[in-house]
Design goal:
The chain has two domains: about 160 residues, P-loop containing nucleotide triphosphate hydrolases (Rossmann fold, 3-Layer(aba) Sandwich), CATH 3.40.50; about 110 residues, OB fold (Dihydrolipoamide Acetyltransferase, E2P) (Beta Barrel), CATH 2.40.50.100. By secondary structure, the protein is α+β, with helices and mostly antiparallel strands. It has nine helices and 20 strands. The strands form four sheets. A six-stranded mixed beta sheet has the order 6-7-8-3-9-10, sandwiched between helices. A five-stranded antiparallel beta sheet has the order 13-12-11-14-20. Helix 3 crosses helix 4, helix 3 packs parallel to helix 5 and helix 4 packs across helix 5.
């Protein structure tokens, strides 16, 4: 498995000049403007190392697909530069960028067989027929569809169509693979399967890959690094662990993973008042005053009895709602004007706590995230 790339925690990306040179795909101050008022992507700089799978993650309208389309050459950049292996491709047409692209809707030709769909890019490149047949067979074997070469797209399942699109992108042996939310049209179980298959193929080929998604689970489970985008800008870039455990902004904390968000007041002694409770965090980076306190629901322990005194945060409240979700039970705890959501694994038989019970909570100070007013 490829090693995760470590980054400086104080900046969206703070790599050395040597690391910048090692990047296979480089975005430098990239910008896309529509008219005078709409700035879809703003001053985006992002180095992607050879063989790395990186996600562009964010909500609809954040600029992630626009960024991918600029990389692919489907739309022109208003400003900035795109390089591949040190070669400036900013103004080159798509077919000269050495990239394979899988669209969200797969964009297969309905009148062509699977084999012809995959061969299309090779035919456009005037690859000899014998060599084309050999390369197509290899690509279809890679996605385990060699036995369906003569079928047409309408005769395939959604997962099989997705594999055909992937084979068509890979058969030209591109330097970079671009994936535009390729799993969004699949059902949940098939998405889980395809996440594993795509990651396995990417690692076997060692191909540099940019993956656009709004699904945090896809980004966390598949990628070496995640670039979280917000309102056209890069909010944070890091490994899945870094983005989840050490979000730099309130937006990143809320978007990546489930989290409680409650108002509080940070005191000069470093403690925080939340409702009638007093808690603490580690090394708050915001000045005293009103803050938003954020805690992951699954990091909070719950008990009918008080926890022993230790260095953790403690609170007491009453369960006002419980929701059964198979392997998880979600409790909503009223702390006296403030509500915390707590997730606990379910057990067979009656649950130990239920609605109306007074319960005790405990979580580590290191799991308490504190944010001041957003920029």
């Amino acid at each position: 498995m490829m090693h995760a790339v470590k980054i400086d925690e104080r900046q969206p990306d703070n790599r050395t000049g040597k690391e910048q040179e090692d990047s296979h795909l480089q975005l430098l101050n990239l910008e896309k403007r529509y008219g005078e008022s709409v700035l879809a992507v703003r001053d985006l700089s992002l180095p992607v190392r050879k063989g790395e799978l990186i996600a562009l993650l964010g909500p609809s309208g954040c600029g992630k697909t626009t960024t991918l389309r600029m990389i692919a050459g489907l739309i022109p950049a208003t400003a900035g530069q795109i390089t591949v292996g040190g070669r400036d491709v900013t103004n080159l047409p798509p077919y000269r960028r050495d990239m394979g692209l899988v669209f969200q809707n797969y964009a297969l030709f309905p009148h062509m067989t699977v084999e012809r769909n995959v061969a299309f890019g090779l035919e456009m490149r005037k690859i000899p027929r014998d060599r084309t047949k050999e390369m197509v067979a290899k690509a279809l074997d890679l996605v385990q569809l060699g036995h369906l070469a003569e079928r047409r797209p309408k005769e395939l399942s959604g997962g099989q169509q997705q594999r055909v699109a992937l084979a068509r992108a890979l058969v030209i042996e591109p330097s970079i693979l671009l994936l535009d939310e390729p799993l969004s049209n699949l059902d949940a179980k098939l998405r889980d399967q395809m996440r594993i298959e795509i990651r396995d193929i990417q690692q076997r080929l060692g191909i540099t890959t940019v993956f656009v998604t709004h699904d945090q689970v896809e980004a966390l489970s598949m990628c070496d690094r995640i670039a979280v985008m917000h309102k056209g800008k890069l909010a944070q870039i890091g490994t899945p662990f870094e983005v989840y455990e050490r979000p730099r902004t309130q937006f990143v904390a809320e978007f990546v993973g489930r989290i409680n968000k409650i108002p509080g007041t940070l005191k000069t002694d470093g403690t925080i008042d939340i409702g009638l409770q007093k808690i603490r965090c580690e090394n708050p980076s915001t000045p005293p005053g009103p803050v938003d306190v954020m805690i992951r629901p699954h990091r909070i322990e719950i008990s009918q009895k008080p926890f022993p005194a230790d260095g953790a945060n403690h609170a007491q409240g009453r369960i006002v709602r419980s929701t059964y979700i198979g392997d998880t039970l979600e409790h909503h705890i009223d702390l006296g004007g403030t509500t915390l959501q707590v997730e606990k694994a379910t057990t067979a038989g009656p649950q130990p706590v239920t609605v109306g019970d007074t319960v005790h909570l405990r979580w580590a100070a290191s799991d308490t995230l504190v944010f001041g007013e957003e920029e």
